[in-house]
Amino acid sequence: MTEDTPRTGTHEPGSEPCEAEDSIPTFPVVASGSADLPPHHDHCLGCGPANPHGHQLRVRRDAHGVHAHHRFDSRHVGAPTIAHGGAVATVLDDLFGFLLYTVGELAVTRHLAIDYLAPVLLDTPYTLRAHIHARDGRKLHLRATIENDHAHVVTTATALFLIVDIDHFLTTTHQPHHR
Ligand SMILES: CCCCCCCC(=O)SCCNC(=O)CCNC(=O)[C@H](O)C(C)(C)COP(=O)(O)OP(=O)(O)OC[C@H]1O[C@@H](n2cnc3c(N)ncnc32)[C@H](O)[C@@H]1OP(=O)(O)O
């Protein structure tokens, strides 16, 4: 079977398996400690160690949530010497995804909002932090910051993640939601 060959199996019609079926991450609750958390999967744009185009984010748990130390580089340039806002959003979205190691359940981004308070410079060390602000049923209200090495916050973000079950990743027939 090639990569392009539809798979057959036990799925219902209209519920075709996706290619990522074998690499859907699991999120056991991990205690605060010094080891890097496992990446979402090897090729994840945010944290996959095998994705040469990705950010290869390395994230740790702490008492409040999760944090990472990160440098954007020339692959992520927007305006000269400044990280592209979309690249910053990618990293923040992925960082939020690591909070699932504090929840122990699958969830996906429903809403992401970012305030770019000051430029995020290339080849410059930053500390990224994220925590769960509140949980309301399957709604996870999340907050994050990026700060420079003078402890100035240059970016803030909020997100709404929604808990989903594994079927979310096994189907390709999602209907768009209108708000
Ligand atoms: C595995 C983890 C890897 C992590 C990688 C980094 C994170 C990612 O990139 S995830 C990928 C990007 N995200 C996606 O692809 C998700 C696409 N969206 C979807 O599939 C669906 O919209 C999904 C599953 C999120 C939600 O669908 P559905 O369950 O129907 O939600 P819906 O009923 O509309 O909303 C649920 C609740 O949230 C509320 N809500 C929805 N949007 C908003 C919003 N923007 N603000 C406030 N509340 C909202 C609704 O009002 C509703 O509230 P209530 O239950 O009280 O009525």
From TrEMBL:
Work out whether the entry's keyword set contains Transit peptide.
Answer: yes
Every copy of the Thioesterase domain together lies at 82-151
Q: What is its main location?
A: membrane
- Segments of this protein annotated with the region Disordered: 1-22
Q: What class of enzyme is it?
A: hydrolase
Pfam families, per database record: 4HBT
Q: What is its EC number?
A: 3.1.2.2
- Reactions mediated catalytically: decanoyl-CoA + H2O = decanoate + CoA + H(+); (5Z,8Z,11Z,14Z)-eicosatetraenoyl-CoA + H2O = (5Z,8Z,11Z,14Z)-eicosatetraenoate + CoA + H(+); (9Z)-octadecenoyl-CoA + H2O = (9Z)-octadecenoate + CoA + H(+); tetradecanoyl-CoA + H2O = tetradecanoate + CoA + H(+)
Supply one GO BP term.
fatty acid metabolic process
KW Transmembrane (keyword) present = no
InterPro entries membership: HotDog_dom_sf (IPR029069), THEM4/THEM5_acyl-CoA_thioest (IPR052365), Thioestr_dom (IPR006683)
| Gene Ontology cellular-component terms listed | cytoplasm; membrane
Protein's cellular compartments: Cell projection, Ruffle membrane; Cytoplasm; Membrane
GO molecular function, a single term: hydrolase activity
Q: Where is the composition biased (Basic and acidic residues)?
A: 1-14
**Which UniProt keywords are listed?**
Apoptosis, Cell membrane, Cell projection, Cytoplasm, Fatty acid metabolism, Hydrolase, Lipid metabolism, Membrane, Plasmid, Transit peptide
Q: Which domain of life is it from?
A: Bacteria
Topology relative to the membrane, per the entry?
Peripheral membrane protein
Can you tell me which family this protein belongs to?
Belongs to the THEM4/THEM5 thioesterase family.
Recorded protein name is: Acyl-coenzyme A thioesterase THEM4
Q: Which organism is it from?
A: Rhodococcus oxybenzonivorans
Q: What is the lineage of its organism?
A: Bacteria, Bacillati, Actinomycetota, Actinomycetes, Mycobacteriales
